[in-house]
Inverse folding.
């Protein structure tokens, strides 16, 4: 019997955000699912009292940590402190290494890295001041601050919106070119043998979307299931042998390339937009996507024929096998 510690970000105050509440729920569900002859499971929350957590881990070291921490004290960019702490204690954990989590939690740094690797990401500079932009948070995920006013139609309007939102949410926002067109989510899973498995690409289709509203999977679409935006966004799995075959193939190649070249591990979801000329753009990297059984990652696995229990056990087995031996970025190109 092995000891598994399932770690999630602590809930902040009496009114948790929807994503905090979701992560806590997933942590308890995983404990229920995995407890048995192989694993004895404990759920714990992490906050900024890292010393308390460090002492707890030293006193009673688990064999493996299931790292679900997406945020510490409401700050996504602090989440990388948890894998860093685990690495410093030589404790193996699931999912992505510290460096990847830190990079994905700074969207501007991620974009610089993608650009240096020749991977397509929407530009942030106002090449054309009359272009359309989206204004989004630099250090936060979960569509924080994204609503119909996130899309603006000039650079002066973008700078105004950056200022308004940064002040309103107390965290920096930035603007990048708005890519009109289709939206896809690519989920990837590393197997025990180190093979990267691409799960069937999902499209978030805008159906019966409110007339005139910018097509953005915004905060309402993600977190208010009764809202018009939630009803107007439908996850579908286009067939690889249908008319979308070529674009799906390109998205899969880009997703795999990103996974390998940035040194991702375990599992991840990469979000794309495809513009009207058919050019794909990487808009977001989620190195710790929610493992809620109804959410995109588990649903893509289900379409691939991987049941929820197998998915979760696969993630655990892969993490246990690799231990602390993460592959360095660019491994596919280094010939190993
Ligand atoms: N450059 C863009 N062009 C068009 N739409 C965009 C662009 N960037 C983001 N969006 C829209 O905003 C949504 C959220 O953006 P993004 O994925 O960057 O934020 P997030 O808060 O990290 O989301 P998640 O909850 O998936 O982590 C996207 O799903 C997409 O609909
Ligand atoms: Mg994200």
């Amino acid at each position: 019997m092995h000891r598994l510690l399932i770690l999630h970000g602590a809930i902040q105050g009496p009114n948790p955000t929807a994503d905090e509440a979701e992560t806590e729920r997933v942590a308890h569900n995983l404990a229920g699912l995995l407890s048995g002859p192989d694993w004895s499971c404990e759920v714990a929350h992490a906050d900024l009292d890292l010393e308390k957590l460090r002492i707890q881990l030293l006193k009673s070291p688990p064999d493996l940590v299931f790292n679900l921490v997406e945020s510490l004290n409401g700050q996504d960019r602090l989440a990388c402190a948890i894998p860093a702490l685990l690495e410093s204690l030589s404790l193996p954990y699931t999912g992505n290494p510290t460096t990847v989590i830190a990079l994905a939690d700074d969207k501007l740094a991620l974009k610089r890295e993608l650009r240096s690797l020749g991977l397509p990401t929407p530009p942030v500079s106002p090449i054309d001041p009359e272009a359309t932009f989206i204004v989004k948070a630099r250090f936060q995920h979960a569509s924080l601050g994204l609503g119909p006013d996130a899309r603006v139609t000039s650079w002066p309007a973008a700078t105004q919106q950056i200022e308004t939102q940064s002040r309103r949410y107390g965290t920096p926002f930035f603007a990048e070119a708005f890519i009109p067109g289709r939206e896809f989510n690519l989920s990837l899973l590393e197997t025990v043998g180190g093979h990267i498995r691409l799960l069937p690409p999902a499209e978030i289709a805008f159906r019966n979307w409110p007339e005139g509203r910018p097509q953005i999977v915004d905060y309402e679409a993600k977190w208010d299931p009764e809202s018009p935006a939630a009803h107007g966004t439908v996850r579908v799995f286009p067939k690889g042998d249908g008319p979308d075959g070529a674009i799906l193939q390109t998205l899969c190649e880009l997703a795999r390339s990103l996974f390998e070249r940035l040194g991702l591990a375990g599992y991840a979801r990469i979000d794309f937009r495809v513009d009207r000329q058919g050019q794909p753009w990487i808009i977001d990297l989620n190195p710790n996507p929610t493992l809620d059984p109804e959410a995109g990652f588990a649903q893509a696995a289900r379409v691939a024929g991987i049941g929820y229990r197998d998915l979760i056990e696969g993630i655990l087995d892969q993490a246990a096998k690799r231990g602390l031996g993460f592959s360095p970025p660019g491994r596919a190109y280094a010939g190993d």
About this structure: The mean pLDDT is 94. The chain has three domains: 2-93, 107-121+180-201+237-323, 133-177. The radius of gyration is 20 Å. The chain has eleven helices and twelve strands.
